[in-house]
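Hello forum,

I keep getting stuck at the same step: I have a sequence, I want structure tokens, and every attempt I make locally crashes halfway through. Rather than fight my setup again tonight, could one of you with a working pipeline run this one for me? It's a single chain of 95 residues.
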Amino acid sequence: MEYLKKLGLNDSDVKTLEENASPEVLKIIKDNDVLVWTNVNFLIDIGITNYIEALVKYPKEFLANTTDFKKKFTKYELSDLIKKMAKNVCIIEML
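Reply #2:
Ran it on my machine without issues. Output:
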């Protein structure tokens, strides 16, 4: 999962991710680097600054196909969503 480090995760983040995610989710993350990379970069592009926390705590959310992932975020007012994500990253599960 070296590609995660290129996305900004440090060793501690990767370790936490590995501890929090099920073996099945970890395998999917390892096998679908382009998907995860694309979804993370989408968050970066729209201005979500705590994307690392979101990925580490809610990795399963990043396994949605890119179209569905983007739809989750684009159906809301972007500036409000960015503020809400900054305050409480867990809303990613509720989108």
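Residues 2-93 form one domain. If your local run keeps crashing, start a new thread with the error log.
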